[in-house]
Design brief:
about 110 residues, 3 helices
């Protein structure tokens, strides 16, 4: 058999060069530029928090400072709290942007 492949001078294996691993950008959560105002309605707080918890369960990145991935390495800290608690803390800190339509009685009866 004629072996045309010569491993003795392979530049990848002879130590002259190191294989370059492809670098992927580190996914970072979107943090709002301005924090939201505190939510005073318990019902709105529960609704916004529950929607955020659903996003976290589906794989969204936490926005809390302690749970953000390291921008250099991409290492994510382990989430030790329940995702519902993480979501509530994010809402309390104003890290979750939401829209709320106020409907006054005059608008609904016209």
């Amino acid at each position: 058999m004629n072996d045309t492949h010569n491993d003795t001078h392979d530049s990848v294996n002879d130590g002259d060069t190191e294989p370059i691993a492809p670098t992927r950008p580190v996914a970072m959560p979107r943090i709002p530029e301005q924090r939201m105002k505190p939510i005073t309605s318990r019902f709105l707080f529960v609704e916004v928090s529950s929607r955020r918890a659903k996003q976290l369960r589906r794989g969204a990145l936490p926005r809390l400072e302690a749970l953000r991935p390291d921008p250099e390495t991409g290492h994510r800290p382990e989430v030790t709290s329940r995702l519902e608690r993480v979501a509530m803390e994010e809402v309390e800190q104003g890290l979750i942007v939401y829209e709320h339509e106020d409907t006054s009685p005059e608008e609904t009866t016209s």
